[in-house]
Amino acid sequence: MVLTLASPLLLACSWYNYPMALFQHGHKSGKRFVVIFDIGSASIGGAFVGIDGENPPEIIFTTRRDIPFQEKLNFQRFLDSMIKTLEELFVLMQKAGGGVKVKEAYCILASPWYASQTRLIKYNQDAPFTVTEDGLDKLIEKEIVLFRDSKLFAHAKAGDAMPEIMESKNIQTKLNGYEMSTPFGKKASQIEIAVFISMIPASIKASIMGSITKFWHVPTVHFSSFSFTAFDTIRSIFPDERSFLFMDISGEVTDISLARENVLLESVSFPAGKNMLIRTLVEKLKTTPALAMSELDLYANHHSTPEHVAQVEDALAEATKTWQASFQDALRQFAKEFPIPHTIFYTADDSMSEWFEAAIAKTSTAPLTESGKEGVNGGAFVVRSLGNAFLGKFVRLVEPDFEDPFLAIEAIFANKFSSLI
User: Fold this and answer.
1) Residue 393 exposed, middle or buried by CB count within 10 Å (0-12, 13-18, 19+)
2) What is the C-alpha to C-alpha distance for residues 402 and 15, in angstroms, rounded to an integer?
3) Confidence (pLDDT) at 374
4) Neighbouring-strand partners of residue 107
5) Co-location of 211 and 70 in the same domain
6) Secondary structure string (H, E, C) spanning 5-51
7) Stretch 69-91: mean pLDDT, rounded?
8) Is 329 part of any domain?
9) What whole-number distance in Å separates Cα of residue 151 and Cα of residue 56?
């Protein structure tokens, strides 16, 4: 159970092409609108989504803005840039929405804006007892307090406000060793609960909420982590995949989460994503960040000449090895406690999916099998991209230009979660 730091894509749509008429049919059909804000480490996305809980969510509008790239990352400047970019996105969305009323906002954060753990709670009594909602709530609250007091937050300066709970989700309950989706009212002598808890620094949450209230008057704002949002969505779409790895490869960070037997057990992060490749090209090719981004996109989209491909691949060789070594270290850390699942689901900028899949495929997993742990089959993973082509089967788009895999995952999550409120 370690620090999760968890993220998004680069896609933009122009608000002025999509007038208020897009939203009018929702009222007639009984749909209600929610707004989603996807806050990552490289970009921030926003969406208006029509939901009713019974049908796939209808994505009415999306937009995305890049957080300004920093050649040398400074966290305070990074945070200031994120808030500024968030408010710029709000201006675009307000113009696109034309005053549409939204009942709920979903604010989904990726790394490095939060920390999380899955806490495994065990409670036993000699004599069987009746399981109640109040009893489970008290057990979970105790774990939240322990998490808040854990070493994850020991570095906080004296006088700083304590981190705030972003979410606490009961992801699995077992009675006497058997998983139960409806445990209340049943008798047991042993309870096991897996609770996913994420927290956000009070200052970061206050900055985000301050920006939201400047632009939006939404009765309810739900905060959640992208790692849990993606985990819950994967469980919904692939009910037979009870054990898997999920990777979120964003601008600044790669997050890897391990799910085993339907429990999100552990997550690790390392500071390497698409922006690492851009910084490498800036250094190796002696160019500017803007030109390096352009060079990388040309390469990723197969628009480069053979000479240019060779030049980019030579420049990125060292960065590729660095990313693979960090990935392998993360797998080793998992393997100390858990078998490594065969399946990897991942999210990444669509243009970079091919590069990251190749990097994953070429990463040696041999050391993971030496300790007798379950290794990957034949040394290879089954890698599945949660990209636009796949997720399009689970959402409805008013316009094709509104494709955005991160916002699609979050729309599926919001559709399910909102229907339970």
Assistant:
1) exposed
2) 11
3) 45
4) 37, 223
5) yes
6) CCCCCCCCCCHHHCCCHHHHHHHHHCCEEEEEEEECCCEEEEEEEEE
7) 90
8) yes
9) 41
292-306 burial string, b = 16+ CB within 10 Å, else e? bbebbebbbeeebee
CATH number of domain containing 127: 3.30.1490.110
| Domain co-membership, 146 together with 20 | no
Residues 280 and 189 in one domain: no
CB 171 within 8 A of CB 118: yes
Residue 9 lies in a domain: no
On whether both 338 and 370 belong to a single domain, the answer is yes
pLDDT of residue 371: 43
Across all residues in the chain, what is the average pLDDT? 84
Distance CA 86, CA 43 (A): 9
Taking the CB of residue 337, how many other CB atoms lie within 10 A of it? 12
301 and 220 assigned to the same domain? no
- Residue that has been written with the tokens 């894509």 in this structure: 9
Residue 8 lies in a domain: no
C-alpha 232/C-alpha 409 separation (Å) is 9
For 144, the domain range is 117-155+164-200
